[in-house]
Amino acid sequence: MAKLNVNPTRMELTKLKIRLRTAVRGHKLLKDKQDELMRQFIEMIKLNKKLREEVEIKLQNSFKDFLLARGVMSDEMLENAISCPNEEIGVDIKKKNIMSVHVPKMDFVRNSATKTGSIYPYGYAQTSADLDDAIDGLNNTLSNLLELAEVEKACQLMADEVEKTRRRVNALEYMTIPQLKETIRFIQMKLDENERGSITRLMKVKDMMAAKN
Description:
Elements: H1 10-72, H2 75-82, E1 87-98, E2 101-112, H3 129-212
Antiparallel strand pairs: 1-2
């Protein structure tokens, strides 16, 4: 492992030891964060899988009801029945913090065009019960779809944060900390060598003075 390019002095040695303690402490904190992020990320992935399966089943049932409705209604009648929705739906997006990751928190904003608040944009005289079931099924699936979108985006953001944290942990573990340790060892050896040299010179001077006396 290559050492850092610093002067081998006691002041630098003290600075490097402080940096090493900080790096070791930072590595532990980041490792703990990485472990907790991974735990929550795995939970999110499981929830995402469960929600996706539920949404797919509900959508399949609604599409089946639409096909049944189409079988007993003309294309023109079906198009006229669903061409003017009774409700405008928007999405209010906020953020919540999970382990320093800002994930979206989404809620529907509904504006009904009718006083009754009915979700069916047609009368019942010329439409089939299958169309009612299809509309009702899609309406019930909306909240699951929104939750699925929320969880999928959260999974993406958390995956990015896991990767960033992993790179930082690896950089500290395999580069910064080993470099600091190697540099500290080198400076310590240099200082010990200089100290031994100084002691040897002092002993020679002492011997020379003793010989003169």
